[in-house]
Design brief:
Blueprint (H helix, E strand, L loop, with lengths): L1 E5 L10 E8 L2 E8 L6 E5 L10 H4 L7 E5 L17 H14 L5 E6 L1 H12 L4 E7 L25 H9 L11 H8 L3 H17 L2 H6 L5 E6 L20 E5 L6 H4 L1 H15 L6
Parallel strand pairs: 4-5, 4-6, 6-7, 7-8, 8-9
Antiparallel strand pairs: 1-2, 2-3, 3-5
């Protein structure tokens, strides 16, 4: 099923947003495409308890030179939320690869925010032929970098969380207390099932427990960009330098921004990302 959302960007040659639901073997995945379809492919993968709309402000800055593809991971957004399917990171990555295959994409630069960067790493491990380069935005390199959150007791009977509790949980995703959290992002959490929420959180932790991301990325030999908001309240920003063990990795620390620079300052986030993709994105014949 394909549904056009209508509208188009002012960038030359950009095409209207196109949304679709792709039926994979283990669940339906929501996909959104923007920009010229013959431009280099850029896959954006959101973080835990989020969705494609976390990228909304950034997309318009990318479509002038890219075919921007966004997906809702299984359990999130407008994708299916089955209770009997795996939410493990390798399985989420496998689905992302299957989506690109279905869209006819042979090579893509893959960008992940937060735990989306973990999925992007797993996709690169599985499909090195598909991933031309990798960019991580505020993706913690290992559990050692995690800033311990205040314990939040949420059981199935309290799901979804009350608004006050939900805003408190989401607040650490931004650099300052009092940041006006977009209501749509809160709706993304409300729209999850208790099972998909808790299981996806555990899946990220399990993957990082097995091996730190810099160690995984070193052996892959792919171009790597890591962007990190310096005032991240979920991961120690100094941990971004752990990625420098990856040969030729580029690291960009953004002062004054927190865990979600793509929302807090899309323009500053797009700058290093576009400079990176200009070097490593597959060529575009205009």
């Amino acid at each position: 099923m394909t549904v056009s959302d209508g509208g188009s960007y002012v960038n030359g040659g950009a095409e209207a947003t196109e949304s679709s639901i792709l039926s994979l073997d283990d669940g339906d995945i929501y996909v959104c495409q923007d920009g010229p379809r013959d431009a280099p492919a850029l896959l954006l993968i959101h973080g835990s308890a989020s969705s494609t709309r976390s990228w909304d402000a950034l997309v318009a800055l990318l479509t002038g030179s890219h075919r921007v593809i966004r997906i809702d991971l299984l359990g999130h957004g407008r994708s299916a939320k089955p209770a009997d399917r795996s939410y493990a990171i390798p399985d989420q990555a496998r689905r992302a690869g299957a989506v690109l295959d279905r869209l006819g994409v042979e090579h893509a630069v893959v960008v992940g925010h937060s735990s989306g960067g973990v999925v992007a790493t797993a996709l690169t491990e599985q499909r090195p032929d598909l991933v031309a380069a990798l960019a991580l935005i505020n993706t913690g390199p290992s559990l050692d970098a995690l800033i311990a959150p205040e314990p939040v007791a949420i059981g199935l009977s309290q799901w979804p969380p009350a608004d006050e509790q939900l805003r408190g949980m989401a607040s650490t995703g931004f650099s300052r207390v009092g940041y006006q959290i977009p209501e749509g992002l809160l709706d993304d959490v409300r729209g999850m099932t208790y099972h998909s929420f808790t299981t996806t959180m555990r899946a990220t932790r399990s993957y990082l427990e097995q091996q730190a991301l810099p160690d995984r990325l070193t052996v892959l030999g792919k171009p790597l960009l890591v962007i990190f908001g310096e005032d991240d309240r979920r991961w120690r920003s100094s941990s971004v330098f752990d990625y420098r063990t990856v040969p030729d990795a580029k690291v960009e620390l953004l002062p004054g921004l927190g865990h979600s620079p793509l929302l807090e300052d899309p323009l500053r986030t797009a700058g290093p990302l576009l400079a990176f993709t200009a070097l490593y994105a597959p060529g575009w014949t205009e």
